[in-house]
Amino acid sequence: MSETRRDATDSAVGNRWLILVAGVLVQLAIGAVYAWSVFSKALQSDAAFGWSKSQATVPFEVAIGMIFIGSYLGGRIQDRRGPRSVALTGGVIYSIGVVLASFATTDSFWLLVLGYGVLGGFGLGMVYIVPIAMLQKWFPDKPGLITGIAVAGFGFGAVITAPVGQRLIDNTPDLPTKAFLPLGIGYLVAIVIGASLFKNPPADYRPPGFAAPPHALAGAGRADRPAASRAGGPAADTDVDPLSGTRNFTANEALSTPQWYLLTAILTLSVVAGISLISVAAGSASDITGLSSAGAATLVGVLGLFNGAGRVLWGWLSDRIGKMPAFMGILAIQGVCLLLIPHASSVGVFALLAALVYTCYGGAFGTMPSTAGRFFGVKNAGAIYGLMLIGWSIGGVVGPLLISKLIGEDKSYSLGFTVIGIIALVAIAVPLVTKKPAPERAAEDAAV
User: Fold this and answer.
1) Which terminus of the chain is less hemmed in, N or C, by CB atoms within 10 Å?
2) Could you tell me which residue ranges the Major facilitator superfamily (MFS) profile domain spans (predicted)?
3) Is 222 exposed, middle or buried (0-12, 13-18, 19+ CB in 10 A)?
4) What is the pLDDT of residue 224?
5) Is 445 exposed, middle or buried (0-12, 13-18, 19+ CB in 10 A)?
6) What is the predicted pLDDT for the residue at 241?
7) Where are the domains of the chain?
C-alpha cells in the first residue's frame, strides 16, 4: 500500500464514526413521522377538529407516498453530487413543510396535506436515502449492522416526538396543529448540524484490517484490465466492487432483474403489515385496553424504541443467518402478533405484541439496504435503493388506508388486524423464492 493510500485511509477511519453519529442525528429528526398517531388522535377529538379516522390519516398517507419521489431524486443526485447538499436541501424542504402544517385549522385541511404530506414527505425522502447509501461506502466491513444503526435513528424519532408532541398538543388542545411550529424548527436545526458533516469516503478507501475476499480480488483484477485483454476481444462491462466482489449494477440494470421486484415486494408487504398498526397505535391501545390518551402517547413513544432497535438487531442478525431467512422471520412474527393483538387481555400483553411488530417492521428497513447492496453493489446504492422505497410509499398508503377502512367507525379491530396478519403470513413465500442474481458467465471464467 502506498503512503498516500495509507494516509487517506487512516484519516478517513477517524471520521467514519463521527459521520455515523451525524447520520443517526438526521434520521432522528425525520423519523418523527412515526409519531403521527398522536396527532391523528388529537385531530379526531371533538374538542379540536373532529375529523374522522380516515380523514386524519390522509396527511400521513400522503407523506409516506411522497417519500419515494424524494428518495428517488435524492438518491440519483447523491450518487453524482455527493451526500451533503442533498441532505441539506431535503432537510430544509421537510422542515418548511412541517412549519407550514402548523398554520392548518379545521377549515384548511388542504394546508396540512400540502405542508406535512407533500412537502414534508418529499423532503423526508430526500434526506432518508442519503445516510443509508453513504454509510455502506464507509463501512463495507459491516454493512448490515451499520445501515441498521443509521436507520435506527429514524425508528427512534417517535420516542422523542410522541411525548413532546403530546405535551405541545395539550397546551392548545383546540388547535393541535400549532405543535408543528416548534417541532419543525427543531428538526431543521438537527438536520443542518448532522448533514453538514456528510461526505463520501475516498474512492480507494478500505477500512483497516478489512481484507477483500478472494473472489472479490479476482473480480477487481478483471475489472481493471481492458475489456479486450480480459476476454480476448470485446466484452461486456463488468464493474466489480473490489471489496465485496459484487457486480455494481446501474439502476437501469437492476430494474431489468426479477430480484429488484422481489426485494421491493418484500419491503412493500412488510410495510403494509407494520405500518397498519403504527398508523392507529395510539387509538388501538386506548380502545382495546382502555389506556388513557396520555398513556397511549407514552406507549407510542416507547414502541419507537423497538422500531429503532429492530433495525439494528435484524441488520446485525441478517449478516449472520442470511438476508432471506431474516425477512421470513420478520414477516412471520408480524403476522402472528397482528392476529393476536385484538385479543390482548391487558396493556402489558398489547404492549408486548406491538413491540414485536415494531421490532420486525423496523427490521425490514435495517436489513433491506445491505440486501440491495449485496445483490446489486454499493456504487449506485442511492439510486437503486431509492427506487426500492416505492415499496415504502405503496405500503405506507395501502396499510393505513386498509386498516382504517376495516376498523371503521365500529372499531372492528379483530377484522382489521386479522386481515393484515394473514397478508403478512402469506407474504413469507416471497423471500422464500428470492435468490441473489447469478454472476455473469464471463466473470466466473475470469475468476477461475
Assistant:
1) C
2) 15-439
3) buried
4) 40
5) exposed
6) 61
7) 14-203+245-447
Three-state DSSP at 247 gives strand
Sign of CA dihedral 226, 228, 229, 235: positive
Amino acid at 50: G
313: DSSP letter: H
State pTM to two decimals. 0.73
Cβ burial of 4 (10 Å; 0-12, 13-18, 19+) is: exposed
| The predicted structure's pLDDT at residue 374 | 86
Residue 128 and residue 64 in contact, taking contact as beta carbons nearer than 8 Å: no
Q: CB neighbours of 20 closer than 8 A, spacing ≥ 6?
A: 135, 138, 139, 146, 149, 150
Q: Provide the 8-state DSSP code for 439.
A: P
In the block, cell 388513557 appears at 292
Instruction: Copy the grid coordinates of residue 265.
Output: 415486494
Q: How far apart are CA 198 and CA 189, in angstroms?
A: 15
In Å, how far are 23, 235, 378 from 210, measured between CA atoms? 23, 30, 16
Q: Which residue has the cell 407510542?
A: 300
- Residue pair 135/23 in contact (Cβ under 8 Å)? The answer is yes
CATH topology of domain 14-203+245-447: Growth Hormone; Chain: A; (1.20.1250)
Tell me the CA distances in angstroms from 438 to 151, 259, 262, 263, one per residue in order: 29, 10, 15, 15
The residues of the chain scoring below 50 in pLDDT are 1-10, 12-13, 215-237, 441-448
Q: How far apart, in whole angstroms, are the C-alpha atoms of residue 429 and residue 266?
A: 9
Residue 101 has, within 13 A of its CA and on its CB side, a CA count of 31
Helices (H) and strands (E) in the chain, counts: 21, 0
pLDDT tens digits, 386-415: 889 889 889 988 998 899 889 887 888 999
Best CA proximity match to 195, nearest among 26, 59, 54: 26
Task: Say which residues have a Cβ less than 8 Å from residue 326's Cβ, sequence separation at least 6.
Answer: 314, 317, 318, 363, 367
DSSP 3-state of 233: coil
DSSP label at residue 346:
S
Q: How many CB atoms lie within 10 A of CB 70?
A: 27
Transcribe 133-162 into DSSP letters: HHHHHH-TTSHHHHHHHHHHHHHHHHHHHH
At 358, the amino acid letter reads Y
Which of 208, 203, 183, 191 is closest to 17 using CA atoms? 208
Which three cell numbers mark 350? 398489547
Looking at residue 369, what is its pLDDT?
A: 87
